[in-house]
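hey can u check if this looks right to u? its 191 residues, i copy pasted from the old doc so theres a chance i mangled smth
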Amino acid sequence: EYPKSSYAAQVILLLVEEAHGAGRYGEAADIALKYVNKISKNAARLRFMAAESLFETAKYPDAIVYYRAFLPEADNLADYTRYRMGLASYHLRQFNQSINYFGDITDSAFLERKYYYLGMSCYEAGRKKQAADQFYNVIQIGHGDFQDEAWKNLVILMEEQSLWRMAVSFGTRLSESPNELDRLVYAKALF
């Protein structure tokens, strides 16, 4: 029943990648999980695809298991793998674990995301000073997808800590935002 040749192993990997690429994550996960422990050629890639497909179907505990198994062989995907394990842990509300995974990321391509989700994880874990530091790190990068959210979260954290002058100072950026919620956060900081 399981593949006995490297050709068969390659076909299985192609089936998994095709299903995953087409958004059929459940199917991709099912195929990958059926064969992941039965083949040796492409086993690392199959573990990675299993993890990715499980993540996309919100089966985060299982995804973490396969990401962890893949990590020693991850090479240039190591920080991406840590990022996905951190996100999975964050979704599971395992904030201390997500802090560990995000904290291990070193690739500069992931820094903004790393700092943002470290900030969110620290906030949820009750470490507000560390959360503020991480949001400030995002802001220091100066560009990217998480800038506005980092500013808003930093202002909210300052308000929560009764640092009103700093909240107003940082919040001035929010006053110019086209987003009504951002302007409301700034207005709240003024009062």
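The mean pLDDT is 84.
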